[in-house]
Amino acid sequence: MFKLSGLGGRLYSGETSFNIVGNRRRWYSISAVFILISIGALFIQGLHLGIEFKGGSSYTVNKAGISVEQARASVSDVGIPGEIIVQKIGNDKIRIETGALTSEQSTAVETALTQTFGVAIESIDTQIIGPSWGKEITKKALYGLFAFLIVIMIFLAMTFEPKMAIAAIVAVVHDVFITVGIYALVGFDVTPSTVIGFLTILGYSLYDTVVVFDKVRENTKSVAAVGKVTYSQAANLAVNQTIVRSANTSLIALLPVGSILFVGAGLLGAGTLKDLSLALFIGLAIGTYSSIFIAPPFLASLREKEPAMQALAKRVAARGNAPLVDAEIKSSARPSIAPSTPRGPRNQPKRKGRK
Known about the structure:
By secondary structure, the protein is an alpha+beta fold. It has two domains: 15-49 and 133-309, Up-down Bundle (Multidrug efflux transporter AcrB transmembrane fold), CATH 1.20.1640; 56-128, Alpha-Beta Plaits (2-Layer Sandwich), CATH 3.30.70. It is 67% helix and 8% strand. It is built from 14 helices and six strands. The protein has helices spanning 4-13, 24-44, 51-54, 68-76, 103-117, 131-159, 162-186, 192-219, 223-226, 231-265, 271-293, 295-304, 307-318, 322-333, and strands at 48-49, 56-62, 85-89, 93-98, 125-129, 189-190. The chain has a four-stranded antiparallel beta sheet with strand order 3-4-2-5. A two-stranded parallel sheet has the order 1-6. Helix 10 (231-265) runs antiparallel to helix 12 (295-304). The protein is elongated and about 85 Å long. The protein starts with a helix and ends in a 22-residue tail after the last helix.
């Protein structure tokens, strides 16, 4: 029976090995397809920004048995300009989002909702966010993202080496770009919860990448001095030694996030959980992929361009059949000796006969 633990032991010892670093072009091609899909989604559909970023008004009505069509018709009769977004949250909540409204227009919307659904105006949860506040939130979110990347790059450069920091940041940008593209493709609103989810997946992706890079550093610490394997071969062994751990960690992390996404958001209808859990679910999966198939191969590509590593690769290639050649040379140079009568050890002291 196949056991993952047995596979992990064989991968760690080198008995079984996947050529992940050597097949870097294959992984780059897969990532390129997802990046192109993300670019297309961003250009065609774009991100659906929530009212927290673009400004607007939100009205949440809590009553069982109400429908989306009733809410949309009620607000449309008021003559509100711009797009009107109506979402059903769970079984007894309706949220209506509009553009920026004046106080008179906001009052008219509340009055229409109370007349349509027969609820008190105090039971309607109203949020009015100005466009200037939304721009400020967007600016702070971008500042936080860039500051996070800069601090992480400095930390990785000090802890490991600059090229490891560059490879880790490339993997993080790869994760964020694909996650944002899928978010645009699905059409979910980008809210502050989404930004929190993005920052969370950045931390998780870097955590997984740092674990792999720590093993890469251990395996390649004296690779140039020993000269038995190339940098890519040593890095590939490190990836194989950590791949089972990364898979187990990611699976354990995806299970609760998946439950939040499909149970909390799908069945219970919690909109905030939906925004957060979708970003986490996509980001965790993409982050695991990049920490194994993108960051280590990209790091190996950077290091293999160094003169010392190029010289190492030439030495390893030159001595690829060295043990066999040396054995053949030694066997051919050894003189043949005809068998003779066995003799005892030489230079032994003569013993007197025993009495």
